[in-house]
Write a structure and sequence with these properties.
By secondary structure, the chain is an alpha+beta fold. The protein folds into 3 domains: 82 residues, 3-Layer(aba) Sandwich (Rossmann fold), CATH 3.40.50; 145 residues, D-amino Acid Aminotransferase, Chain A, domain 1 (2-Layer Sandwich); 69 residues, Dna Ligase, domain 1. Helices cover 39% and strands 21% of the residues. The strands form 3 sheets. Strands 8, 9, 10, 11, 12 and 13 form a 6-stranded antiparallel sheet that branches. It has a 4-stranded antiparallel sheet with strand order 4-7-5-6. The chain is globular and about 60 Å long.
Amino acid sequence: MSGGTLDVVVLAGGLSHERDVSLRSGRRVAEALRGAGVDVSVHDVDARLIPTLRELRPTLVWPLLHGATGEDGSVRDVLDMLGQRYVGAGPRASRVAWSKPVAKTVVGAAGVHSPRFVTLPQSLFRELGATAVLETVLEGLGLPLAVKPSRGGSALGVTIVRSAEELPRAMVNCFAYGDTALIEHAVEGTEVAVSVVDTGDGPRALPAVEVVTDGPYDYDARYFPGRTEYFTPARLTTDVADRVAQAAVAVHTSLGLRHLSRSDLIIDRDGVPQFIDVNTAPGMTETSLFPQAAVADGYDLGKLYRSIVEAALED
């Protein structure tokens, strides 16, 4: 495909809480692909999308949608029904990865470590009583805790809880973004993001990006410069760097992902990578971690993105 004309539709926007990040990701990828000689148009996800795709019949679609709809497999189901090829995981793998508890269970079976966790729907607090449930959580998991929606990204609704008094407010914050909470023991250690790319010769990990934040690595810290410092490659020993790379590839493979992904891990005090979350449509903004890792590995982003497009066309 490297010698032919490529016509790519980038999907960006949508109606999730992460709309702005998606739009920024879409613009960056479109610019890089144009620089690599690809014809690109960017389209939102709205009532005009299906007629537009039927009319344009692009070579490929690249969904750069974050949050619900974009990462839960539903848009990819529609693309499959249209007979449209696209970048990234298929619907089934997307649904598994989108649910943090399910993803943790699957990657755990593949031998990847993950912090102890429970998954609790909002209805359970009404049925059993919030006080009793939260006391049981504290006894079972201990402090500190990470409270987050069971589905979602960009750290929206995520709170690190260091005292029992902080837990009720963390639950309220979480349930503002979803009706089911994942509560896990908050592992102390080095936070890294490890991107995986597969351009046709098997998945390989890019250099880990170490994330050092002034406070929690929340939405503001992720997408607005100033509060977060990144080290690419991460400041790890060769042995630990190999472990995090192996863990990220195992996550990618066990979940059945394609073309690209990014796993967030915390390296605990024993040097063991603990799986936190996976992104099937990693952010591609100016502060996002996938492009940082790719550049650190010597890639020209336009050429890499074109290679991903070409690999998707071979699947």
